[in-house]
Amino acid sequence: MSLTLAWLLPALAALFGSVLLCRLAMRYAVRLGFLDRPGSEAHKQHTRTVPYGGGPAMALALAVTLSLAAWVLPLPDGSGLLPWPMLAGAAWLVVVGLADDARPLPPRLKLALQAVVCAGAVSFADLPIDFLRAWNPVLAWITAFAWLVLVTNAYNLLDHADGLSGSVAVVGFCALAGGAVLSGDAGAARVWLCLAMAMLGFLMWNRPPARLYMGDAGSLAIGFLIGCGTLSTTFWPSAEGGSPLALLSPLLICAIPLFDTGAVVVKRLRRGRPIMQGDRNHISHRLTRLGVGARASLGAVIALQIALAASSFQLRNADWMSGVVALAQAAAICIALVLLETARDHG
Length: 347
What we know:
Blueprint: H1 3-32, E1 35-36, E2 50-51, H2 54-72, H3 84-102, H4 107-124, H5 130-133, H6 137-158, H7 164-182, H8 186-206, H9 215-232, H10 249-253, H11 255-270, H12 283-289, H13 294-314, H14 320-342
Antiparallel strand pairs: 1-2
Helix pairs in contact: 1-2, 1-8, 2-8, 2-9, 3-4, 3-9, 4-6, 6-9, 6-11, 7-8, 7-9, 7-13, 13-14
């Protein structure tokens, strides 16, 4: 069987499996009372009761799809599954997220549980950054750990509006799949593509107005996996004479979640509020205050993230001048986001 079919068939299975399992999760969550009610947390702006369950449904669809694909459609190099520390870490974060969705955990405990998972992944999944590890292994470990914790939380915090975190994650997983293809890693490409398609299946029920939420059970695991992906994917093919500017690719792939997290943290610090206390100063809240509708704001954020992710590919084999142009494009988008953050700043 061709490599294209070995990617395409599992991706379609992940898509339709996610659509079906999310529908079942929605039904049973309502029966069990596993619901997100309006006003349950300060940063949430929905006005209707919405069932949880999208996170576990996507996880189950992905687990079944990748397991069957590894058995029925093996790749030539025998790959096709994530390293076990990544799988175990993602599974653990689904459990932590479920507990938090059922009854909110203290923020410090939640962060500590994430830190344990991230430390395990960096230690056992061989994630430390190669160019730093050659110079200072301890610094490489600390940097990789801090990055993984940051990205995990950034995607979690971005999950404050219908379809937002999931849509941005689809762009991130597609970028990782593209990076894996260019690096010749067929197994990783299949995994990231299946993740993107499983997320698309969930978005069928999560687009505005949402009928299902993934909850922390989904957003924590997604952020963790994208963080792992940006650490494990080779963006700088130095052996092929690629540009070292490609090392900035992970920042561009995760730009919207990182910017949103940074902006709200700065605002909370400036106003003397606890940084772990939710509020309504996230990007979707600010767009709403500017009079932008839910669908329009979602489309705008997706377009910005696609442009930023595209810039990351421009950096891969760019000469210095082309790299500067790509970075200037990314900088222009970030400046636009800064202007958005300062517009009608009364949140």
